Amino acid sequence: MDVKVSVILPSLNVGPYIEECLKSVCNQTLRDIEILCIDAFSTDTTRQVIKKYQKEDERIQLIDSERKSYGFQMNLGIEKAKGKYIGIVETDDYICPDMYASLFDIAENKQCDYVKADFDFVNDSNGYIEFTRDRLFPDNSDIYGTVLDPSKNEYIYLHDHNIWKGVYLKKFLLDNCIRFNESLGAAYQDIGFAMQVFSSARSAYYSDKSFYRYRIGRADSSVKSPKTLMFIWQELQFLMNRSNWPNQFNVCAVFSRFALAFTDELRRILVNCGISIEDKNIRPYFDLICSKYKEFMQQGIWPNDDTNPGTKETMLLVLQDIDAFIKNEQIAYTKQQAIFAEQKTKREQFYSSVDSLKVKNIIIFGAGAYGRSCYRDLYAKNISVAAFLDNNEKLKGTLLHGIQVIVPADLALFQKEIGDTGFIIANKSHAEELSEQLIKMGIPENKICRYR
User: Fold this and answer.
1) Whether the model pTM is above 0.85
2) What mean pLDDT do residues 378-388 have?
């Protein structure tokens, strides 16, 4: 078989998730792939599941990793890979069936060093599944759909945080000696890899389609550790020790990305988690990173005119007055928590109003952004939606989240087919008018409620 994509699946004790992950990779519409399961001697059911699927699919290889290191596992996978492109799937996540077919076609047609796409967060920790789209470049849509040179674009360094949502030309990785840091564990090695990729690539493509489903909410997630400053320091040291440092790197952009990671972790550790700056897992690495950045500034390496103003301002405050940084972030965190509490209250009130409709079938009146938000809240509670209703005739017959959009002229026939129906008005500006419209169409008021 001529392998088009080698999909690397690094694993260690992911028993509850590995089957869903493997199934999604095996079911790819692009059949010319190899599936490299690099397991660090899991002690749960992970290996049994891999071996079961290995018997059913000859494309699967189980490769033992002698070290419990994400970076070591990934380097081993790249070394063993026979495909033209490298794909990465975290083994507690899963992917859509057409992911690699779509990305491979783009990479071949556009002749790119790498191709990436958007993804969805998946949270099933609360007993139900909630999807949230992550748009990589929310305020710069020009990046999507065109071949670009990422090496000089600091915006990409700051916003493209993940390595697993795309494919990489294997020759590109090998020619540029791009490797993972083989530090122990599985945290922040992706930053070092990504900084090498961005600095070395001259042709990249970003799709605004979403193929990857990234699971959040795991209690044992490495990013929840108080040792994350140590991980950040290790990655920074790893890059600066590379033989091609600094000549082949966009050094200022790399430092901006690490400044963003550093300040984000400080915010999480010191404010959100309430851990003291003097904690033994924090203070030594805080001092090391601050000392290094002061050295960068004295040498004129960072910042420069292209440095993101927000990143620069926050990092300078940390360097000059950590207490002021903590105080500012505590105020912001308190306000944020108040907003979250208000949103939660409104959401619960909304769910109560939906329950009061006492119907089997729900139609959302409004197929715009508010209607899509309404759908996500209903989906999070496993409340199914029969259809979207909208006054825009151009939307008739289209699909939104896989659900048909109908117009008022079709409503009577649709209701006759599905039976008892309740309506949720999802329009922020014209809720009164839409409510009156439904009532004039014969819909009882007690079968109508509004989205929060």
Assistant:
1) no
2) 89
SS3 243: coil
Q: pLDDT tens digits for 299-340?
A: 999 999 999 999 999 999 999 999 999 999 999 999 999 998
pLDDT 10s digits, 160-196: 989 999 999 999 999 999 999 999 988 899 999 999 9
Own/partner contacts of 426-432, CB < 8 Å, gap of 24 or more, are 426/364, 426/365, 426/366, 426/368, 426/370, 426/371, 426/373, 426/374, 426/450, 426/451, 427/365, 427/366, 427/368, 427/370, 427/371, 428/370
pLDDT digits (tens, 9 = 90+) for 88-137: 999 999 999 999 999 999 999 999 999 999 998 887 765 556 666 667 78
Phi/psi for 387 (5° steps) reads -170, 165
CB–CB of 366/434 below 8 Å?
A: yes
Contact of 449 with 425, CB cutoff 8 Å? yes
Predicted pLDDT at 414: 94
Sheet architecture: strand order including 361-365: 399-400, 403-406, 387-389, 361-365, 421-425, 448-450
Distance CA 89, CA 92 (A): 8
Q: What is the pLDDT of residue 275?
A: 93
Closest to 42 (Cα-Cα) out of 23, 14, 75, 63: 14
325-336 as b/e, with b when 16 or more CB fall inside 10 Å?
A: bbeebeeeeeee
Distance of CA 226 to the CA centre of its chain: 22
Closest CA to 258 of 282, 292, 284, 225: 292
Tally of residues, the chain: 452
Count of C-beta atoms within a 10 Å radius of residue 273: 10
